[in-house]
Design brief:
It is built from no helices and 17 strands. By secondary structure, the protein is mainly β. Keywords: Membrane, Transmembrane, Transmembrane helix.
Length: 160
C-alpha cells in the first residue's frame, strides 16, 4: 500500500525499486539515466499499478517485472533503454497503452517463464528485435497463454 507519485529520479542505481510489494501505485514519475532499471517490481510484487510514468535512457530496462503477477502497466513510456518493458517469470499482468521505442534490444519482452499476460494497444517502434502481432510490436520467446488485443472495425476487441 505504497504510493510513489510525481518524482524525478535520475542517475541512481534504480529509479524506483519495489520488492515483494502489493497494492501499491506508481504514478506520474520520471526515472531516467539510472544504472539499472528505471522502474522495477521484484520478487512476488502483485496487484500494483504503474500509470503515466516515463523511464528513458536507463542502462538495463525502462520498466522491469521480475517474478511478479497481477500488475497493471498503463500509459507508460520506456524509450532508449536496453529493453523497454521486460517481464521475467511474471504472469497475469496487464500492459495497456504503453510506448517502448528506440531500445537497444526489445521494445516489449516476455521471457519463456512469463504466462497469461494481456497486451492491449501498446506501441514499440525502432527497437533492434521484435515481432509484429496485430499492430503490437513485441518479442515473445516461448511465452505461454498470452493475449494481444486489437480493435475491430465495429469497435469490438478481438483476442488472438
Amino acid at each position: 500500500n505504497i504510493t510513489v507519485k510525481n518524482l524525478n529520479l535520475h542517475n541512481n542505481s534504480h529509479g524506483i525499486l519495489l520488492v515483494n510489494t502489493t497494492n501499491s501505485k506508481i504514478l506520474n514519475n520520471t526515472a531516467n539515466l539510472n544504472g539499472y532499471e528505471g522502474i522495477s517490481l521484484h520478487y512476488y510484487s502483485s496487484n500494483n499499478s504503474l500509470t503515466n510514468n516515463t523511464a528513458n535512457s536507463n542502462s538495463w530496462n525502462g520498466i522491469y517485472l521480475g517474478s511478479s503477477s497481477n500488475n497493471f502497466l498503463t500509459n507508460n513510456t520506456a524509450n532508449s533503454n536496453s529493453y523497454g518493458i521486460y517481464l521475467g517469470s511474471s504472469s497475469n499482468n496487464f500492459l495497456t497503452n504503453n510506448t517502448a521505442n528506440s531500445n537497444s534490444y526489445d521494445g516489449i519482452y516476455l521471457d519463456k517463464f512469463s504466462s497469461n499476460n494481456t497486451l492491449t494497444n501498446n506501441t514499440a517502434n525502432s527497437n533492434s528485435n521484435y515481432i509484429i502481432i496485430f499492430g503490437v510490436i513485441v518479442l515473445i520467446i516461448a511465452a505461454y497463454y498470452f493475449f494481444v488485443m486489437r480493435k475491430k472495425k465495429k469497435g469490438k476487441e478481438e483476442s488472438k
